[in-house]
Every structure is written in C-alpha cells, then in structure tokens.
C-alpha cells in the first residue's frame, strides 16, 4: 500500500528540501529547523556556501544530479534528478515506481527566490549585464513545485517561513496553505516574466500586455468607505511614489494618491521638473512659439477632487502660492497643494492657515517643516522625481484601456485671426494651454500673468465652463487678490475646439484679448470671424487635450 508520501507501509525516508535563495532573510532559521528535524538540505552556489559557513550541513545539488554546475552557474538545477523528484506524484504508483527504478529521491520542500531582475532593470546596466539577471532555474523549480503543491511545500517569501515551520512541528502543513503558497509562486513568476517582457519588447502595444506590479500597501478604503483598495507599484521602474518620502502626517488614502498624482504632474509641468529635466511639451513649444520665455519659475498648484482649483507661476514660491490661493480660496480648503520648488517658512506660514490634506514639494526648509508639523494630520511629502510614466491605464469591465500619456503640447502655432497675439500675452497663452490639460473636459481657463484667475471644467458643453471661469476671474480681480482692481485677464485657453462662436462673444465682453485652442471644428470659421470682429487674437495649436 502506498501512503501520501509515496512510501510502502513501514518504509521511512529522510525528507529533503532544496534551498537556493538570493535574499538570505530568515533562511538560517528555516534551515536550522529542517536539519534539526532530520531533513536533508540540498543547495547550490552561494546559498550552499552561506549555509555551510553557518554550520548547516548541506548536500550539493551536483552530488544529486551527478553533473557539475556549468556555464558560469547558468546550469545547476535543470536536471531530471531535480525536477522528477519535485514533480512526481506520490499517489500514482507508476510515478513511485519510476523514481525507484531511476534511483531518484523525492524533494519535499523547495525554498527559492529569484535573481534581482526587478532591481537590476532599473539600474541602467548594459543589456547584456541585465540579461544575466534573468533567472531560469529558479522559476523552473518554483513552477514545478507549485504544480505539485499537494506533495511539495514551496516557499518564495520569508514571511511564510514561520507558518510552515509551525505546520511541520504540528506534523501537518494544511493543503489550503500549500495551495496558497503555490498561488504565490505563479503570482511572483508572472510578474517576473512580465518585467522581462517589458524590458525586451519594442512593441508599444504587444499582443499580451505585460504588467509587473507589486503591492505597495493596503489602503484604509477606496474612493468611498465601503470600497476596499490597495496601491500597486511597478517592479521594473522607479516612479514618483516609489521614491516618495513622507515626513509627517496620516497614512495616504486612495483619493489622496489620485489627487497627489495630478497635483505633482501639474506642478512639474512648468519650468524645470523636480529632477532637473524639461517638462513634457517643452520641446514642442520651443519649436513653434516665437519669443518664449524659458526662465525657470516657481509653480504652485492646488487640487480638489482631481481637478485644479488654482495653478500659478511666480518669481518666488510665495508669489505663486498667493496667486494660486486667490484663484479659489474656498475650494482649496481640504485640498492638496504641490510646489515645484522647496517650501520655505513664508509659504509654510500661509499653508498653515488652511486645512489641507497634503503638501508636496521636492524639499522643505527646516523652519517650514517645524511650522507645518504643527498640523497633526497634515501629510507632508518630499517627492524626489518628476513624472516619467509613458502610458496611462483605465480599467473597463473586462479589460484595460491603454494610451500614451498626454505629453505633447502643440502640433503647431497658427495665428488664424487678423490680429496677432501681443508679445505680453504669449507666455500666458502657453501657460494656459499647459495648465488647462490638467482640468476635466470640457475645460476653459482664464489666465493673467501666468496664473489661473478662473477655471471651469467637467461640464457636458463648453459654454458653461467658459461662463463659469470668466465670471470667477472677474470676481477674483475685484477681491483681495495680488491684482486687485487691475485690468481684466487677457487670455483664455481651451482644451478643445469651439463648436460655436458663443465662447468668443462671452470672452470679448469680459475683456479677453487672446485665445488659444486646438481648432478643428466645422465651425472654426465662425469663431475666427467673431474674434476678428472684436479684435481678439486667436491661435490654433492642432492638439486637443481632453481629460475625461
């Protein structure tokens, strides 16, 4: 009679574990328990040396295979004596007989983690050096073990060692735990293979979409309290969130992270990014626009419900913040503020007057931190990188929509009216077109001195946000604003074309002197004629910036 271990009744055989790990966390404790419980440990290379140095008896895999490691360690465990010992089912007599005939012993536990491809693919090594960190034997052993999880315990994560030890002490590692550990194998190897595929593929939209993501943290809840949520981070690229340093405050939530992502992208879109690189679309602007001022300026943006309620540039951050706050001092309450330069004490004093969820910047002066930390729950985030994501992913029922990130600002700079833009208005037009791309469609922004004075968006037609933003701008300029009682804002920016001339008429009545928009409507002629009637300059860019 054959029992679950594949032995004849009355027979005994020493259990064997194959241990081959790159990361050594917890491995000594596991190995000491196994050897103390009468198990034989098989191992290879660096793991074998490490265990022996720590007085753990080890059988080298080459003694089992009868074949030496070769090709600089590329071939060690790829041998029938290993994989047959893992894959043989103990409840099938022919498998038992085959191993007996071939003099191959069972392997009852496999503990393997993989070469650090995730880390090395980010290190900027040559392709050949990177390829050397693609693990072959490790995934093969893990997959074999996971397929035969009823008979083989498989470990990839040191966090699982203790519960397996406890199960072995009790004389039983439950099948449900074995199944879970097997699932973790395929979870790991699928992410590992996806990272390799992403590295090697040159197809922007391959037949199968390889995404390699690792859980960064569970979140308290999702968009609403009854929804669960988690944050996943790419294993093979170092994005903004992976390099983020939280200096103070509560844990980030789902909505916080979404708003932070938009706020930081908007803040980094002007001047130099946090890492010193040019913002997306800068090259396009320089190609097409005459007399563009490339002076690096401080940027401050305020985000509420994933859309800007203020965004401004200034020669100093306090100037940029003051204009951002004045754009909508009501909506900024409970929002997120992001800055593209270090926060100093003057800005911190102003921020400290508000209830904010997050303040994010590339750095904070010591005095500024001391001021901001008086707010117990305020999340203070130091972000060291500018956004680099090349694609965006939107979940739909049954799949994902994938598109390039919106990184081109202009296709052209075409003056379509009799009146050209005044030189003073060109920087505001460029600022407006950049800034309006972060507002929900249909989006209209009114601009004065590289600051939004009125923002409208998220409506089902274009005239409503136009009226909203013009009305808001007129009101802002009459209040305690940096430009109190100054002339009306001169520039209007739109993320998409005008289907009717009604926006031009409203803009003319409000004193707008220049409009920038993509163009491309069947009714473009009507808008151009309306601009000419009122002496307004209008520029077509040829690039729409819908943000749904």
Describe the structure.
- The protein is of the alpha/beta class and 548 residues long.
- The protein folds into three domains: 16-200, Methylglyoxal synthase-like domain (Rossmann fold, 3-Layer(aba) Sandwich); 242-382, AICAR transformylase, duplication domain (Cytidine Deaminase, domain 2, 3-Layer(aba) Sandwich); 408-540, AICAR transformylase, duplication domain (Cytidine Deaminase, domain 2), CATH 3.40.140.
- It is built from 19 helices and 21 strands.
- It has a six-stranded mixed β-sheet with strand order 8-13-12-11-9-10, sandwiched between helices.
- Strand 9 and strand 10 (307-314) form a beta hairpin.
Key words describing this protein structure:
single chain, 548 residues, alpha/beta, Rossmann fold, Cytidine Deaminase, domain 2, 6-stranded mixed beta sheet, 19 helices, 18% strand, disordered N terminus
Shape annotation: elongated
Query: In terms of per-residue confidence, which ranges show pLDDT below 50 for 5 or more consecutive residues?
Result: 1-12
Q: Report the sheet with the most strands, covering strand number, pairing sense and barrel closure.
A: 6 strands, mixed
- Radius of gyration of CA atoms, rounded to a whole number: 31 Å
CATH first level of the largest domain: Alpha Beta
- Derived from helix and strand composition plus strand pairing, the structural class reads alpha/beta
Q: How would you concisely characterize the structure shown here?
A:
This protein folds into three domains: 16-200, Rossmann fold; 242-382, Cytidine Deaminase, domain 2, CATH 3.40.140.20; 408-540, Cytidine Deaminase, domain 2 (3-Layer(aba) Sandwich), CATH 3.40.140. It is 34% helix and 18% strand. It has helices at 27-36, 45-53, 61-65, 80-87, 93-102, 117-120, 127-131, 137-147, 161-169, 175-200, 254-267, 282-288, 317-327, 345-351, 366-372, 426-436, 463-476, 502-509, 524-534; strands spanning 16-20, 40-43, 59-60, 109-112, 153-155, 213-219, 229-234, 245-248, 298-304, 307-314, 336-339, 358-361, 379-382, 391-396, 399-404, 414-415, 444-447, 452-456, 491-494, 514-517, 537-540.
């Amino acid at each position: 009679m054959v029992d679950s271990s594949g032995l004849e009744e009355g027979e005994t055989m020493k259990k064997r574990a194959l241990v081959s790990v790159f990361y050594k966390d917890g491995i000594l404790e596991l190995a000491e328990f196994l050897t103390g419980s009468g198990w034989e440990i098989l191992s290879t290379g660096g793991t074998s040396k490490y265990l022996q140095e720590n007085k753990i008896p080890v059988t080298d895999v080459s003694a089992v295979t009868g074949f030496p490691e070769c090709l600089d360690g590329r071939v060690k465990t790829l041998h029938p004596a290993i994989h047959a010992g893992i894959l043989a089912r103990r409840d099938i007599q022919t498998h038992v007989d085959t191993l007996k005939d071939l003099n191959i012993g069972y392997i009852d536990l496999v503990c393997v983690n993989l070469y650090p491809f995730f880390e090395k693919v980010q290190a900027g090594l040559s392709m050949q050096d990177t390829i050397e960190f693609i693990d072959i034997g490790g995934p093969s052993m893990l997959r074999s073990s996971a397929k035969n999880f009823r008979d083989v315990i498989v470990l990839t994560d040191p966090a699982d060692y203790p519960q397996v030890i406890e199960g072995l002490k009790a004389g039983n590692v439950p099948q449900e735990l074995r199944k879970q550990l097997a699932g973790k194998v395929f979870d790991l190897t699928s992410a590992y293979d996806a990272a390799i595929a992403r590295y090697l593929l040159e197809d922007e939209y391959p037949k199968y979409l390889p995404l390699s993501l690792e859980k960064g943290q569970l979140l308290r809840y999702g968009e609403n309290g009854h929804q669960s949520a988690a944050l996943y981070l790419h294993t093979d690229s170092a994005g903004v969130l992976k390099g983020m340093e939280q200096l103070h405050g509560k844990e980030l939530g789902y909505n916080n992270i979404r708003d932070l992502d938009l706020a930081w992208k908007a803040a980094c879109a002007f001047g130099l990014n946090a890492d010193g690189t040019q913002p997306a679309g800068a090259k396009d602007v320089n190609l097409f626009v005459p007399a563009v001022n490339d002076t690096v300026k401080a940027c401050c943006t305020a985000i509420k419900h994933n859309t800007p309620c203020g965004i401004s540039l200034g020669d100093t951050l306090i100037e940029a913040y003051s204009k951002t706050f004045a754009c909508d001092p009501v909506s900024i309450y409970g929002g997120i503020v992001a800055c593209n330069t270090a926060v100093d004490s003057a800005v911190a004093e102003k921020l400290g007057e508000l209830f904010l969820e997050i303040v994010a910047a590339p750095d904070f002066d010591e005095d500024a931190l001391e001021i901001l930390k008086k707010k117990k729950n305020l999340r203070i985030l130091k972000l060291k990188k500018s956004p680099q994501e090349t694609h965006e992913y939107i979940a739909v029922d049954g799949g994902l929509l994938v598109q390039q990130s919106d990184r081109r600002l202009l296709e052209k700079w075409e003056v379509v009216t009799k009146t050209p833009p005044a030189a003073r208005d060109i920087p505001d037009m460029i600022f407006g077109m950049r800034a309006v791309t972060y507002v929900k469609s249909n989006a209209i922004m009114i601009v004065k001195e590289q600051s939004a004075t009125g923002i409208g968006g998220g409506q089902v037609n274009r005239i409503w946000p136009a009226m909203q933003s013009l009305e808001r701008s007129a009101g802002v300029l009459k209040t305690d604003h940096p430009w109190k009682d100054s002339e009306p804002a001169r520039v209007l920016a739109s993320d998409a074309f005008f289907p009717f001339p009604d926006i031009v008429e409203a803009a003319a009545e409000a004193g707008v002197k220049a409009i920038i928009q993509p163009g491309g409507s069947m009714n473009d002629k009507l808008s151009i004629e309306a601009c000419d009637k009122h002496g307004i300059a209008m520029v077509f860019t040829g690039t729409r910036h819908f943000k749904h």
